[in-house]
Structures are given as structure tokens and as C-alpha cells.
């Protein structure tokens, strides 16, 4: 059996062609454009939570009036009590990445909503356990937030995982 001899990639090497141009225009929001990102996903159970938070931030930076809706296990992303050994301590690199990204979303003008029902009934979270600036909503508002955005023609991204 023969082995193919190829130099091992080194730090800084490009392993894909980065000179290929974008296929699509770098779209920006038009006046009045809205976006809704809904997340029903468990933090740290894959990359979808962090990727959606980064996408939410990108929508804000493109000029969209952006709302992030956390419901079901998604409310855990907005926990202000995360950290180890103490609240706010980053136990490992990236441990607070979701918290930090939610804070960025709020700082840059995004709205973050969390479902009270999921917080209390499913996870025993108190309102004071949320990151400052995250707004609580009634469980029946979860659908109405979606309807409100749909009726205005908003861009809607929805992730539902368990």
C-alpha cells in the first residue's frame, strides 16, 4: 500500500480559495425592514445557538430592526447566572460566548425577548436571572410576535431543536 505524501498544513496556510468573489450582493436593510430570529434550542448542544446569535448581530449591522425571540430551552441562552466557579467567570474559552453575544445584540440596538412560561415552568428561572435588557413576554405572545413580523413582511429565521 502506498501513502500519498502531501505537506502537512501549517498555521496561516489557506486550505480553500479565499479569492473567489461573493456570489450575492452584500445586501443592506431598506428603510423599515425588520427581522425576527426565533430560537427554541438548547445552549451548547451544537453550534446552532451561537450561529443564530451571530446571524442576529449581522442583521442588526445590515440595518434591520431586529428582534431575537428565545422560547423553550432558548431562554437558557439569556441566563445571567452562568459561570464557574463564580457567576461571570469563564470556566473554559467560549463558556460565556452566548451571553456575550446577547449583550452585543442589545448594545447594538437589537431587541431580545424571552418567554416567561419557559423560564419558570420548564427551568425554574427567575426574572432577575436574565441578562439586563432582555424583555420578558407572555407565553401567548410567542405566536403573536411571529404574526406581527410576518404581517410586516419581515425576514424571519426560525430554529427549533430539542
Can you give a write-up of this model?
It is a single chain. This protein has four helices and five strands, in the order βαβαβαβαβ. Helix 1 runs parallel beside helix 2. It has a single domain, classed as DsrEFH-like (Hypothetical Protein Ychn, Chain: A), CATH 3.40.1260.10. With 162 residues, the chain is α/β, with parallel strands linked by helices.
Short key terms for the protein model shown above:
alpha/beta, five-stranded parallel beta sheet, Hypothetical Protein Ychn, Chain: A, 162 residues
| pLDDT averaged residue by residue | 95
Task: Give a quick account of the main beta sheet: strands, pairing sense, barrel closure.
Answer: 5 strands, parallel
Strand content: 15-25%
Percentage of helical residues? 25-40%
Q: Structural class per helix/strand content?
A: alpha/beta
CATH H-level superfamily title: DsrEFH-like
How many beta-strand runs?
5
User: Radius of gyration from the CA trace?
Assistant: 19 Å
The CATH architecture comes to: 3-Layer(aba) Sandwich
- Within the CATH hierarchy, at the fold level, what is the topology? Hypothetical Protein Ychn, Chain: A
Amino acid at each position: 500500500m502506498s501513502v500519498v505524501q502531501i505537506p502537512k498544513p501549517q498555521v496561516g496556510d489557506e486550505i480553500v480559495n479565499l479569492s473567489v468573489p461573493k456570489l450575492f450582493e452584500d445586501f443592506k436593510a431598506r428603510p423599515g425592514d425588520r427581522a425576527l430570529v426565533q430560537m427554541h434550542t438548547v445552549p451548547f448542544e451544537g453550534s446552532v445557538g451561537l450561529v443564530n446569535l451571530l446571524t442576529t448581530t449581522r442583521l442588526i449591522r445590515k440595518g434591520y430592526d431586529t428582534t431575537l425571540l428565545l422560547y423553550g430551552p432558548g431562554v437558557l441562552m439569556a441566563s445571567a447566572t452562568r459561570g464557574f466557579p463564580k457567576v461571570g467567570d469563564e470556566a473554559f474559552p467560549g463558556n460565556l460566548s452566548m451571553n456575550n453575544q446577547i449583550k452585543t445584540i442589545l448594545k447594538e440596538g437589537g431587541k431580545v425577548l424571552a418567554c416567561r412560561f419557559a423560564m419558570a415552568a420548564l427551568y425554574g428561572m427567575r426574572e432577575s436571572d436574565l441578562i439586563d435588557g432582555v424583555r420578558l413576554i407572555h407565553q401567548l405572545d410567542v405566536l403573536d410576535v411571529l404574526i406581527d413580523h410576518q404581517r410586516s413582511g419581515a425576514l424571519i429565521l426560525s430554529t427549533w431543536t430539542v
